[in-house]
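Figure S7 source data.
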Amino acid sequence: MAKFEKHIFVCMNQREAEHPRGSCDPTGAGELQRLFKTKLAQRGIPNAQVRANKCGCLDQCELGPTVVVYPEAVWYGHVTAADVDEIIERHIIGNRPVERLIIPDAILNTTHRK
Ligand code: FES
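Tokens for the predicted FE2/S2 (inorganic) cluster complex:
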């Protein structure tokens, strides 16, 4: 089986509303991951080529909703449904990450994430 060309991990972690770190999918509805899957399918991109997976907490909660795309290891923060088309068009298809959504290396995995 061929390797995936790209793998999109969409945090779907849900915490209680009062939690200080928040959560990427506070309703637990999984809308963002489903939207990636739907939009990839609409463009005819096979699931075996690019996969959009649900995942648990990626530990960048304060910057969520968080999405990471491999193999480039590009981390996106504050991703909304309105950003999905742009990520697919520019990054997944065009191989040009969406700069405005990238979590800078300087704050990725740090305590300075607000
Ligand atoms: S809840 Fe999504 S990164 Fe932690």
